[in-house]
Amino acid sequence: MIRSLLLTLLRGFIFFFKTKGLYVIPLTAVIYLIIFWFSPDFLNYLQNQFGQKFVFFTVSEPILSLLKFSFTILFIVIYPFFFAGFLYLLQPLLGLKSLYLLLFYLLGLILFYSGILFSYFITIPYGIKFLLSFKTESLEPSISLTHFVNFFSFFLLTFGLIFELPLFLALFSILKIIDPKKIARYRKEIFFFIVLFSAIVTPTPDAINMSLLAIPIYLLFELGLFLGIILRKFNILSEDVQKVPQQE
C-alpha cells in the first residue's frame, strides 16, 4: 500500500508539472519576489515586536537570510494551493466523495494555520523570552539575523506540519495502512515518544515549553484516532472505488 501511494504521488507530480508547470512556476516566482521585496519590513516588525536588534557578521548574511525568510513566508502563503495539489494527487488512490474531499481540504488548512498561529503567538515568544532571560548587566544578547531566521522558520513550519497529524492519521486509516483501534492500545508508549520528541524539538529545556508542544500533539493524536475510527464507519468512498472489490 505504501509503495502504491508513493508511485501514485510520483506519477501525479510528473503529470502536474507537465500540464500546469508552465503557469505555476512563473506565478510562484512572482509571489516570491513580492515577498522578498517586503521581507525587510517583516523582519523589522519582528525586531520591534521581540524588542531585540538583529545583527549580522558577514557581508552575505543579510541577503541569504532574506532569501530563507522569504521562502518560509512563500510556503505559508501558497500552502492552500500546495495542499490542494497534494489531495488532488492522492484522490485516485483515496477515492473520496467530493464532499469529504472538501472537508479534508478545509480541515487540513485549519490545522496547518492553527499550528502556525500557535507557534507564532505562544512557542516562539516564550522560547525567546526564556533564552534571553539569562542576560546580565555584563552579558547583553545580540541575536544573529541568520540564527533568528532559522529559528523562526523552523518552528513555524514544524508546528504547522505537526498540527496536520490528525488528518494524516485519518487518511492512513482510510487506506488501511494503520488500524486506529490497535494503535490506541499503545497510548502510554506513544505518549512517551511524544514527550521525548517535544523535549528535542522545543527551543528551551524547561518543562513548561515542552508541555506547550507535547500536550497539543497528544490531543491531535487522539483526534486523529477518533477521526480514523469514525470515518471507517461512514460511507465516504465514491461508488467507483466501492465497486472495485466486488469486481475482483
Shape: flat
* Total strands: 2
Task: Give the biggest beta sheet.
Answer: 2 strands, parallel
**How many domain modules?**
1
Q: Layout of SSEs?
A:
Elements (H helix, E strand, L loop, with lengths): L1 H49 L3 E2 L5 H34 L3 H35 L10 E2 H18 L2 H10 L5 H4 L3 H15 L5 H27 L5 H9 L1
Parallel strand pairs: 1-2
Helix pairs in contact: 1-2, 2-3, 2-4, 3-4, 5-8, 7-8
Quick recap of the structure?
With 248 residues, the protein is an all-alpha fold. The protein is built from 9 helices and 2 strands; from the N terminus they run αβααβαααααα. A two-stranded parallel sheet has the order 1-2.
Architecture overview:
With 248 residues, this protein is mainly alpha-helical. It has one domain (2-242). The protein has 9 helices and 2 strands; from the N terminus they run αβααβαααααα. It has helices spanning 2-50, 61-94, 98-132, 145-162, 165-174, 180-183, 187-201, 207-233, 239-247; strands spanning 54-55, 143-144. A two-stranded parallel sheet has the order 1-2. The longest helix is centred in the N-terminal third of the chain and has 49 residues, at 2-50. The protein starts with a helix and ends with a helix.
